[in-house]
Amino acid sequence: MYVDNKRLRTRLTHSWDNVAELDGVRVFAAVAELRNFRSAAKSLGVPRSTVSRRLAQLEERLGQRLLQRTTRVVALTDVGEAYLAQVAPALLAITEASRAMLDAQAVPRGVLKLTAPPFLAERVLGGVLNGFLARYPDVRLELELTDRYVDLVAEGYDVAFRAGLLPDSTLIARPLGSATTRCYASDGYLRARGRPEVPADLAAHDAVVFSGFTGGPLWSFVVRKKTVDVKLRARVLVNSILVACDAAVAGLGIARLPELVAQPHCRAGQLVEVLGGFVAPARPLNLVYPSGRHLSPRVRAFIDYVTAELRLPEP
Fold it and tell me: Which of 196, 238, 197, 198 is nearest to 217 (CA)?
């Protein structure tokens, strides 16, 4: 087989020059950031002489002086400022790509901090979390069950499960499906107060309202393809779905509850569905986490596992 040695040497030389130039760009960026050759050498883990040599080679290749050097001060030239603005985003992208490749090979480990609504954890999450921990034995889990909207960044949480429409934020959301909500009351309450036939009838009834859905005593229904808001007389206003369910079972009023919370009580004869012909707007379920390009291996593994494995119960 014929080999063109001259062409091969030329290609190898060009490849080596590209690697050397990239190395020089990294050195230049470090010096530009730290404004000191010794500090740049320390951060890069190379001798100071290597920093000087690489920078000189880069400037020679570009035919431009990038830095002004004195015995005490290192300053960027105008050309150096413009060059840094061009190469910094590319260096960041290379660094992030390398980090992502390393993370893909890393074993998830450490503490994973989650928060979720209690009703979701009680009815759905147990099997998913157990499966995840079985697959990744080096991960430890801290789970807080709460219906309040936790500030993930301020309180140091990695991931949250959120039911309902999300407010505008910097969080990234991964949709997991929808949680259907319907209206329920105890049979004893309905015998004493009558059964509502249309949403407007709720004005004459006591309501058990979960404040996390609306922030106040107001429910929305889809009537003839239009959304209709019904103002309620809230006898109980509470920020816990499970407490709201218990109040409805106790006969304190009509409650709007997720089906996966109410159905066990319906099967036990403790709750009865009302207003079944009127649909409530869908309440999406999302997995949310702080925005940012870099996720730790344990967080990325958890997000991928949950989105693949979580299955909401059928109505």
Answer: 238
In the chain, at which residue ranges do the beta strands (DSSP E only) sit? Answer: 67-69, 74-76, 110-116, 139-145, 159-163, 171-179, 181-185, 206-210, 218-223, 226-231, 233-238, 254-258, 272-274, 283-290
Q: How many residues does the chain have?
A: 315
SS3 161: strand
Going by the DSSP 8-state scheme, the letter that residue 49 receives in this structure is H
The structure tokens 């949310």 sit at 288
Strand order in the sheet with 171-179: 139-145, 110-116, 159-163, 283-290, 171-179
User: Are the beta carbons of 149 and 292 closer than 8 angstroms?
Assistant: no
Alpha carbon 33 to chain centroid distance? 31
For 208, residues 6+ apart whose C-beta sits below 8 A from its C-beta are: 234, 235, 236, 238, 244, 247, 248, 252, 253, 254, 255
Can you tell me the distance from the alpha carbon of 263 to that of 261, in angstroms, rounded to the nearest whole number?
A: 6
**Residue that is written with structure tokens 């259907």 in the block:** 180
pLDDT, one tens digit per residue, over 69-124 is 776 678 888 888 888 888 888 877 777 766 666 555 578 888 999 988 887 777 77
What's the pTM value of the predicted model, to 2 decimals? 0.55
Tell me the C-alpha distance between 219 and 44, whole Å: 60
Mark out the alpha helices in 45-168 (DSSP H runs).
48-62, 78-105, 118-120, 126-135, 152-155
Other beta carbons within 10 Å of 231:
12
